[in-house]
Structure formats: structure tokens, C-alpha cells
Design goal:
Helices cover 72% and strands 0% of the residues. It is mostly helical. It has 2 domains: 6-207, Alpha Horseshoe (Serine Threonine Protein Phosphatase 5, Tetratricopeptide repeat), CATH 1.25.40; 233-318, Alpha Horseshoe (Serine Threonine Protein Phosphatase 5, Tetratricopeptide repeat), CATH 1.25.40.
């Protein structure tokens, strides 16, 4: 199975199924690919086939849980995780089930699962982070801060992937108690992982209002709480350098320069505007529109200026 090329992997799996229609591993890998592509209905169908032909493989149930979760079918997701735990009661499955219980509004079961995960693996930053998220959502700010402090501490030691998320949630908790270091935590989160806001929206889409069975609103709302709007002087200097390059007609280098600015200041709306204008002049219309949308999401007040600049850029590209 060629994992580095998802379309080729699908083709390989289909060939395997043509040879043996009951080959559960081929359906499993199709589910893996569709999860990667975020095509959840297809992932659910193929993971169900893999379970039909091999119901005692925890990985088949795990992929089914992921697909069901993102389809908003939380009871089915929990049932799949029950099977994972029956087949292999490791701490990761307890964390995952706890998160789905959280989204489903079953606080007691979520707390129990996170506690079991911590019992099985006391050094799991993910377990503390997930329980801190639950406690923050329930208004237990002191409990959330205790867990999130522990998550950050453990994550520093393990280089755990959720490390930036722990910082971000801790920033939200600190805001609730008026801690002046709250913005620094959220900025630290995005500095560690510039793509964090998009990851949160994608990974926790099943927690959005209207997607959970209980219609609950969690701390992770569709529009994330704004990160600190303060822009570093270095990012501003880099954008000015990009503007100078664009004025000379060196648009590709200008785009690369704006990319550098956004790595430093991911919520610098003006950087998105200027990168979008450069991309417009390069006739990369779709990418330009994405930049403009991001800029307006951060700062809707830029719309008049943006409309004026887009008109100028359109005239230039139409010559």
C-alpha cells in the first residue's frame, strides 16, 4: 500500500478487493485514505466493511469511530470505541472516548474515561489536556488550570503533538480569571504551530453547535476567540519588504516574504491582504480570495481598503 500517494493507495486497495472481496485490510486502508481526505461518509462505509470481515481488529473499529465522530454520529462513535477498549484497553482509546462523551454532553462518563487514561498512563499530556478542556467547558476554571498546567509540563518533556493546544486552552482559562499572561499563552500556541486555529476547527468540528446530539456550545466555537492582535515590529518590517518587492514586480518573492511575516504573526490581517494582492497579479485567483477572506475574518474594517486595492489589481491584471 503506497501511503505517500493517497490516490495510488486507493487504486491498490481496489485491486486487492477485486482479487478478494473479503480482504478486510484493503477496506481498512481505503478508510484511512478517506479519513485523510476528510471524506467521512466514504470512510464510514469502508470501515464498516472492514469490521464486517474482521470484527476483532481494533484498528478497523478505530477508523469507524473517527468517521462516525466527524459525521456527528456520536453514539456510533462511542460504540466503536467500546469495541476498541474491549479488544485493547489502552489509555489512548479512553481519551478518545472521553472526548466524544464530552461532545455528547455526558460529563460523568467523560471524567471517568480521562481518569482511567491517567491511571493507565500518568505521563499523558493529552489526557490532562482533554480533561482540562472538559473542566473549562463546565466552568471549573481552577480544575482546568491545574490540568492544563500539568499538560504543558508533561508535553515539554515528551514533545507531544497537542502541546500547542494545551497552551491555547490554558490561555482561555487564564482569561476567565483575569490572568494578564493569557494572551502570551495563546500567542505561544500559535507560535509553536501557526496552523493551530485551522486544526482546532477541523479536529473538533464535531463539537460545534448543531453537530453534537445535545446541541451544546463548547469553548471551541466555529469562530475561535481572537488571538492577540498585537503585531510584532519584525512582522511589519517584513511586510514592508514584501510590498517593496511587489512594487518592483517581483511577485513570487513578495509572496514568499509575506509568508515569512505570517509565520511570525499568523493573525496579521494586512499581510493576508498584500499576499492576496500579489497572488491576484500572479493570476492565482483562488489563493488570493482565500487570503482576502482570512484578512476580513480577522479585521472586517479592512473591507473598504481591500475593495479599492482589489479594483486596482484587477485593472492591472486585465491589461
Amino acid at each position: 500500500m503506497r501511503r505517500e500517494n493517497w490516490d495510488a493507495a486507493l487504486a491498490d486497495a481496489d485491486k486487492a478487493i477485486a482479487i478478494d472481496a473479503r480482504y478486510d485490510n484493503a477496506y481498512y486502508w481505503k478508510a484511512v485514505v478517506y479519513c485523510h481526505k476528510r471524506q467521512w461518509a466514504l470512510a464510514a462505509a469502508d470501515s464498516a466493511k472492514s469490521i464486517e470481515f474482521e470484527p476483532n481488529d481494533k484498528d478497523n473499529w478505530d477508523k469507524h469511530h473517527v468517521a462516525m465522530k466527524h459525521l456527528g454520529k456520536l453514539d456510533e462513535s462511542i460504540a466503536a470505541l467500546d469495541e476498541c477498549i474491549r479488544l485493547n484497553p489502552k489509555y489512548l482509546y479512553y481519551i478518545e472516548r472521553g472526548e466524544v462523551h464530552h461532545a455528547n454532553g455526558d460529563v460523568g462518563k467523560a471524567e471517568a474515561d480521562f481518569a482511567k487514561a491517567i491511571e493507565l498512563e500518568p505521563t499523558s499530556g493529552w489526557a490532562y489536556c482533554s480533561r482540562g478542556h472538559l473542566r473549562l467547558d463546565q466552568g471549573d476554571t481552577a480544575g482546568a488550570l491545574a490540568d492544563l498546567n500539568k499538560a504543558v509540563q508533561l508535553s515539554r518533556l515528551s514533545r507531544w503533538d497537542y502541546y500547542p493546544f494545551a497552551y491555547y486552552l490554558r490561555g482561555l482559562a487564564k482569561e476567565k480569571v483575569g490572568d494578564p499572561t493569557a494572551a502570551a499563552d495563546k500567542d505561544k500556541a500559535v507560535m509553536l504551530w501557526p496552523g493551530l486555529p485551522d486544526w482546532i476547527r477541523d479536529e473538533y468540528d464535531y463539537m460545534k453547535p448543531g453537530r453534537t446530539l445535545t446541541q451544546r456550545t463548547t469553548v471551541l466555537k466555529p469562530a475561535l476567540p481572537p488571538l492577540s492582535e498585537k503585531v510584532s515590529p519584525l512582522a511589519k518590517q517584513i511586510v514592508e519588504a514584501g510590498k517593496a518587492l511587489a512594487a518592483k514586480g517581483d511577485l513570487e518573492q513578495a509572496v514568499a516574504t509575506y509568508n515569512r511575516a505570517l509565520q511570525i504573526a499568523p493573525r496579521y490581517a494586512e499581510a493576508y491582504v498584500h499576499r492576496g494582492l500579489a497572488r491576484m497579479r500572479l493570476k492565482k485567483t483562488e489563493e488570493a480570495e482565500q487570503d482576502f477572506a482570512e484578512a476580513l475574518q480577522i479585521n472586517p474594517g479592512l473591507k473598504p481598503t481591500l475593495d479599492e486595492e482589489r479594483t486596482k489589481a484587477n485593472k492591472e491584471t486585465s491589461k
